[in-house]
Design brief:
77 residues, 86% helix, single chain
Length: 77
């Protein structure tokens, strides 16, 4: 077997192990818990309203570009 063939076999073994590890992670309790809470947050009306409120509060800050302007804006208030 040439060096090239053994490197190909080594890479295929590494890829198989990586897929196995990915499957183990995806079927873990931690991922299941994360997906559960993600769906709760995505379907929450309270979260949707808070996101809208946050977006409104963020809009005025988008126009501020540098720290000097931020300092001036804070001092003026």
């Amino acid at each position: 077997m040439s060096i090239m063939e053994s490197e190909i076999l080594d890479m295929s073994a590494i890829l198989l192990q990586a897929y196995d590890m990915g499957d183990m992670i995806n079927s873990s309790a931690e991922v299941a818990d994360y997906l559960y809470w993600k769906s709760i947050v995505e379907n929450s009306e309270e979260v949707k309203e808070l996101k809208k409120l946050f977006a409104k509060k963020k809009k005025p800050l988008k126009s501020v570009k540098d720290s000097d302007t931020i300092t001036l804006a804070i001092t003026m208030r």
